[in-house]
Amino acid sequence: MDIGFEQAGFEVVWTNEVNRLFTDMYSYGMTSWKRSVFPESAEAIISSKGNIENIFTPRILKEAFNGKRPPFFGVIGGPPCPDFSSGGKNRGCNGDNGKLSKTYVHRICTIKPSFFVFENVSGLHRTKIHRKFLAKLEKTLEKKDYCLDLRILNSLDFGLPQNRERLFMIGIQKKIASKCLGRTVKPNERNWFHWPEPVYANAKESYTWPDIVPKGKIPRQPSEIPGELTVYSLLNRNNDPSKLLNGKDFFKPYSDKFDTIREGDTHRKSFKRLHRFRFSPTVCYGHNEVHLHPWKRRRLSVREAMRIQGIPDTYALPEDATLTAKFAIVSNGVPVPLGHTVALSIMNFFGDVRS
């Protein structure tokens, strides 16, 4: 999400990450990407590597702004989501990860940014028990004079070949929202924010996607499906990711399953093989369970996974980091095009009010 907001014209001035493996990779990756755009850019580093539960507002403001709140600034973040995920243990707000959503909201209430973005899995909104917790967070924020709007966005609908739904909650101070809209936002009102329009609305259901490929056959590319919605657009020879940094970072294929699982068989719990002319299921990699390449006898490489997340090719991860850590940091992130389009919508909503 940092990349997407920077691309939209925002400047990231303070960051927090407690996992030391991720802090080093973040620094390496963000620095490589920034210097590809602006060669004289300073090294990107994580501002604070401590537990956010023990880092309070005065310290954050001091490190980010020398102790003084600027007239206009925002807070963006995605509190850890496994406790709200359908693929997790559904511990919700009582889980070690889930409780950090409440911490994040409390920091917003005390830091008092002009706006904020809260990103999480769609299960936080769609699962009944988690929705009650989210409603409490909303009430807390509204009592602090924030207008709220929520929407579940799918990266596939915005031109990235990955079926990845994410909940975005945007909050803007009432006086600023009213000035931008030219009217007062009513208490508990929703759907007032100008959300980005999908490029391919409801793409998952709007096309007839090809089925599992018979053994030994090469599928034909469907003419009615936009090419950018297929993983083939990211993996084909004319756009070869293996020649780039992290392009040959992949797990060695030992299992016999690499020879037997057919292209497009993504219904199984593990060893999902992508279809070259379909979108990828959600990139959520753990315990070395990375999607299989459509036509090669191996799992995806780190670079291929980064492309499915929309990460620029100039963003690189260090060679000495473990493959497990690399795949984890890639799959944990917000798809860059999705973060970018949300950031642009926020920038456009504010217009000239920032001055």
Concise structural overview:
By secondary structure, this protein is of the alpha+beta class. The protein has helices at 2-7, 20-37, 57-65, 99-111, 123-126, 128-143, 174-181, 203-206, 232-235, 257-260, 302-308, 323-332, 336-350, and strands at 74-77, 115-121, 146-154, 165-173.
Record keyword descriptors for this entry.
globular; 4-stranded mixed β-sheet; 355 residues; alpha+beta
Structure notes:
It is built from 13 helices and four strands. It has helices at 2-7, 20-37, 57-65, 99-111, 123-126, 128-143, 174-181, 203-206, 232-235, 257-260, 302-308, 323-332, 336-350, and strands at 74-77, 115-121, 146-154, 165-173. The two termini are 24 Å apart. The mean pLDDT is 93.
Strand and helix map with partners:
Elements (H helix, E strand, L loop, with lengths): L1 H6 L12 H18 L19 H9 L8 E4 L21 H13 L3 E7 L1 H4 L1 H16 L2 E9 L10 E9 H8 L21 H4 L25 H4 L21 H4 L41 H7 L14 H10 L3 H15 L5
Parallel strand pairs: 1-2
Antiparallel strand pairs: 2-4, 3-4
Order of helices and strands: HHHEHEHHEEHHHHHHH
Rg value: 21 Å
Number of helices: 13
Q: In whole angstroms, how far apart are the ends?
A: 24 Å
> How does the major sheet shape up?
4 strands, mixed
For the largest sheet, list the strands in their spatial order. Answer: 1-2-4-3
Low-confidence stretches: none
- Which structural class should the secondary elements be placed in? alpha+beta
Mean pLDDT: 93
The amount of beta strand, in percent, is: 5-15%
Q: Helical content, roughly?
A: 25-40%
Total number of beta strands:
4
Using the alpha-carbon principal axes, give the shape: globular
